[in-house]
Amino acid sequence: MRTRVAALFAAAFLVVFFLSSITASLTVKEIEATAEVSMGSIVFSLSSPSVLMLPVSLFAMLLALISYLRNNKSAGSLFSLIAALFFLLFMIFYTRETANDSLYRILAEKIKEAGIKFRKRDVGNIDVAYSINCFITLALGFLACIIGMPNISTQVNRRTLRKNLLPYAYVGPHIFLFVVFFITPAIYGVYAAFTKWDMFGDPVWIGIENFRVLFTEKGNTYYNQLRNGLLNTFKFVLYSVPFCILVPLSLALALQEKPRGNKFFQAIYYLPALMSITTVTLAWRYMFFKSYGVMNNFFMSPYDWFTPPYSWIMLVVVTVWWVNGGTMVIYQSALASIPIEQYEAGSVDGANSWQKFIYITLPGMRYPLMYTLITTVIAQFNIYGQPLILTGYSNQEANAVLLMYVYDNAVRNQVAGISSAMALILGMCIMLVSFFQMRVLRRQEIH
Prior knowledge:
mainly alpha, MetI-like fold, 2 domains
């Protein structure tokens, strides 16, 4: 019974939250402006660091509701406590923000309508007052925690509670980081793709206008950027992924033979993976630059390695050199797990090295190969640092990838809505390609 009541309080928390609001007031030259802003609008204002606590609070209460519905009182009580605490922290820190741009813009418009001219630096603090529903929401969060809390009156119950909560102590930090740095930005990113936003004020909902511009306005700069960036991204994935799989696999097979100094060579092959992409790309750029590059001067080479088609060669070589170490270690582990008896049986049956590789090695590495193929494709779709540092926008943007346009439009040009739409399109492309890969690989596994 108490679990059901706690579930009702958790559900009420989510409902009353979106019925809550705040009242903001600002006084300029004896003129006071007041505005009431709903909590739903504040969640998507994207102009206050304190607002980031609200998605965490909502997500935690949603987990609490699911836990209570599954009769898991320990987890439900824990998540409802987290939700209430994060909402309390929001209420404390949001009122202490001295320069809340979201509220300032709303209030400034009202003051300007009264004919008052002023500068932002002349404005004092914005006073914030919470509606009664905000305090009801906070109370509902703590009540959901208290009512759903399991009985801890005996030592056996306390031991059971610790046992039930121990897994959450291990996964809790990961869940928190996942929500803060992945779920929340992903939700805001999708929302921003349907808005007009300059990254300073509140985003304005415009529906699919950004996508209409990107897909239909042929004379528009963003239309051309999407096509050029997406085409170059697909080119790079097509060029680099096969080598990112085959080169580490070849190195792992060679090191499996245990040649003299194999540990030394393994360390050398893995070393680039420890370096940052900036260090790697700058080192290769200094080595192969046409005028002062070491390699061009030493071999008297006339080629400019940073112009097409050679620039694609350099991008692939640098990428494979940088990422092959981690994939090689995965393949070494997979090769070590294949029983030696299978190779001995193959030798008895007269199989040569190629046949052993096809019929023993590859089937034994099926899952690591599937994993590295999918993750490599996703990683190469997110290419940014290599073309930015090696070529930039030179050669008529011949090597400019989509993430370069995404960053420039968001940060430099301050058209974050268009930038988010581009990023969402890239994300959908990655999802579709990954889904197609998994279907094909699973179908081959069944056959």
